[in-house]
Design goal:
Elements lengths: L1 H30 L3 H23 L4 H28 L4 H12 L7 H9 L3 H31 L1 H10 L2 H14 L5 H27 L7 H26 L3 H10 L6 H10 L3 H29 L1
Helix pairs in contact: 1-5, 1-9, 1-13, 2-8, 2-9, 2-12, 3-4, 3-6, 3-10, 4-6, 4-10, 4-12, 4-13, 5-6, 5-11, 6-7, 6-11, 6-12, 9-12, 10-11, 10-13, 11-13, 12-13
């Protein structure tokens, strides 16, 4: 079973992602693309589109939502404390601390997590609902804590707050929540462009990451990259397992949450690092290395989840 899962994950999820990253590497080698422009295209257009459409379209059970949000908030707090203590002990400077924290607490629950969930649970509705909640939570976390964390490290507290409210992602999130709650339908001339932009985010974001990778020096901060991957891929699932037992969760919900805790670093952490100049080389390496290593660690977590729950 384990061997089958390894090849399935690699062929159906990991390999397609790396093809898009490779496209970015090739384009950068031939055309020297402007990384700042690509970053702004993502943060000011494509990310607001995917946040809005995801929040606007998701229908969730209140009871299920509250259980999972409590779990996710507690896990975030524990990972934040562990990461911050590591950054203090290792004496990271502000920019590296910001990127290290984001690389641990922000996970790729969208284009990586949803396919993993579908593969592991064969499109089970409950499991997919859990993953959608985790994905929505990570979107909110990325462009609240993640964005604020990235901005404050460079600009200070007051300017960081102002920078946060300059980014349209916050307004897209609030608008999506309000329209969803009020059950207001959008005309097609608004909904279709938003959905098209959201659908384009995956390709553009991964190509942007490839552009960053093309100029990377993998010797710089590589030990710290491995450290962040260890916390994200090993400590994260261990904490998740403990919290599942604490919350008394079981069955499909427990399995789906445990797998969600084992996902690699979000590519959005690299986009934020690039936008705010916070050790963007380190951030891109953290995404790539954790994604590569997750092929093995996720397989073990999926196997354990099926065995235990």
């Amino acid at each position: 079973m384990a061997v089958t899962v390894i090849f399935s994950i690699f062929g159906q999820v990991i390999l397609p992602l790396f093809v898009l990253i490779l496209v970015g590497v090739i384009l950068e080698r031939f055309f020297s693309l402007d990384q700042r422009t690509l970053s702004k295209l993502n943060l000011y257009y494509l990310v607001p589109a995917i946040v809005f459409t995801q929040v606007y379209q998701t229908k969730l059970s209140a009871s299920l939502f509250l259980h999972i949000i409590g779990f996710l908030l507690l896990q975030f707090a524990l990972l934040f404390v562990i990461s911050f203590v590591i950054s203090v002990v290792w004496r990271f400077h502000k920019s590296l601390t910001s990127s290290f924290l984001n690389s641990v607490v922000l996970t790729n629950n969208g284009n990586f997590g949803i396919p993993i969930n579908q593969l592991a649970f064969h499109n089970d509705p409950l499991a997919l609902s859990v993953q959608i909640i985790v994905f929505a939570f990570q979107n909110v976390l990325t462009f609240t804590f993640g964005l604020f964390n990235a901005g404050v490290s460079k600009t200070g507290l007051k300017k960081g707050i102002r920078e946060f409210f300059k980014i349209p992602i916050f307004y897209a999130l609030v608008l999506g929540i309000l329209l969803n709650a009020a059950q207001i339908g959008l005309p097609s001339f608004l909904s279709v462009p938003a959905e098209n932009a959201a659908n384009g985010f995956l390709a553009v974001a991964l190509v942007t990451l490839g552009v960053q990778v093309a100029a990377l020096n993998f010797k710089k901060n590589f030990v710290i990259v491995l450290l962040s991957s260890f916390v994200r891929l090993i400590i994260g699932p261990l904490l998740g397992f403990g919290l599942i037992l604490l919350f008394g969760l079981h069955g499909t919900m427990a399995k789906a949450l445990l797998i969600a805790t084992a996902l690699p670093t979000s590519r959005n952490s690299a986009l934020l690092a690039l936008e705010y100049g916070n050790e963007s080389d380190y951030a891109a390496q953290a995404v790539i290395v954790s994604t590569l290593l997750s092929g093995l660690t996720l397989t073990m977590v999926i196997y354990f989840a099926n065995l235990y729950f």
